[in-house]
Fold these 3 entries.
Entry 1:
Amino acid sequence: MTRGRFSWRRFAVVLVPSLLALVMLAVGMADGSVPASFAVSGRQMKVSADELSGQGFGLAPANVRSLNGRPHPVMMLTMRSARIRGLCQSAGVDTPLGRYVVKLQARAPERPTLVDNLQISATNIDADVNFRGLAVNQDASALRSVSGAGGRPGDYGLGAQWFTIRDVKADAWLVTGGSFRMDGLRAAIGRGVPECF
């Protein structure tokens, strides 16, 4: 019986570029020079936070696409400005050694992350919400005046002038931010690294 051989060279070719990209992204996000942005890959990621609060909230249906052109229907959450406590993002990565988890999270959960023009393309959200200045079934295109990003004319929209959202757990395809300021960022990859939830 022939046993399979493990190639460290092949492992390095797959894993090292991913780790370098992760480190560069982490450093850029920590000093605010790189927006929090994750390309739509073939799989979703998990995003969680203890609390999001700020001004200008919008929700509307949208689509994102994978690199192969496959569309994914999502709920597009937009926030003009947000303070985030306990931010965490994780995703599974396939390697020659098996499935690993890449995880980015706030090193000090009590210190807020500041984000402008935050957008989350989510398929599932679990949270406790508190809205002020709420409008339900508003035309999605009108959300630009509230959150800074609107949907298609005629689509369903939900908007709020002020928001506080606690215990957030979301399955998402994409997260972007116009500006992103986190004073401390912890990045990790490993088989034993737990996902955000």
Entry 2:
Amino acid sequence: MTLPKTYADGNCPLARTLEVVGERWTLLIVRDAFYGVRRFGDFATQLGIPRAVLTNRLKSLVQEGVLTREEGGAGGIEYRLTDKGVALWPAVHALMNWGESFYSPNGVKRVLRHDLDGGLLDRDGRCRDCGSAVPVPEIRVEPGPGFRPTGTELDPVSGAINTPRRLLEPIATAHNPG
């Protein structure tokens, strides 16, 4: 069930934010966009989301200006985070930290590093080596000690996401050469 579109108190920014990203699957789509997923079929494969739901969520994220819908290579459509979408990173990162704290008994599933010097990022997104607040394009994500691949044979999108790479770097697959 989605939240109502009108509230007694129209001044709640959290309620408005949840109207945009609070539906099931939406934040996972945004997360995967940070990981470099850009094509409809790749989102569908990676998330196992029903195609009609994915269509609805992508359309909503484009209408809200979180994603753009653009012609990609080989005539396909690609979805990319806008500046407004990239601004969601602190919230996505905070939710990932919360999940790691309470639902990852074997350790963090994904490690975030400052790609320029290899330093680990703290919970606030600062590099532990140089002290910088690291911008999203300079963050490298890699499997952590709690990471366990699902299944025996990975699709190309999962394979790319599960190898060290910079956030926002597009995933190259056979049908999407990057």
Entry 3:
Amino acid sequence: MTVSIRPYDSADWDDIQRIHDAARLDELRGAGLLDAYLDLAATYENEGLFDDEVWVAETDGAVTGFIAGSVGPDGGEITWIYVDPGQYRRGIGRALVEHFVARSGGRVELEVLDGNAARNFYEALGFVLESTTTGKLAGNEMFTATGHTLVWTPPQL
């Protein structure tokens, strides 16, 4: 199995929508927020999916995940990352995060909902807890959620 990362193309929309909609259910289930579920079509504009760079993972020619975020001179922020639930634990998420970190050139942060099993994944990649906050759930502000800001910093040379 070969995972490759490439820039998003508009032809990928159906694939990333399918991936988001399935994986978002897992994310919200872990946080006890299933009632807050909205599909990608309902949230991508308000949440600014295409405000930053978007990359897709392909596995053997099929889109199996995507990542989005901002990269600046001092680092970056991952704002979206989803992997096809049928492809969990196959290195796709790792490949996406490693690609993003390599492009960032510095500190990278992301937020993960309390109760989301992905937190263990990020910590295994070297992200550490910076803060915990409670507020309106991004994408469905009718709900309150607790999120953890995790940060990866480059190793000191």
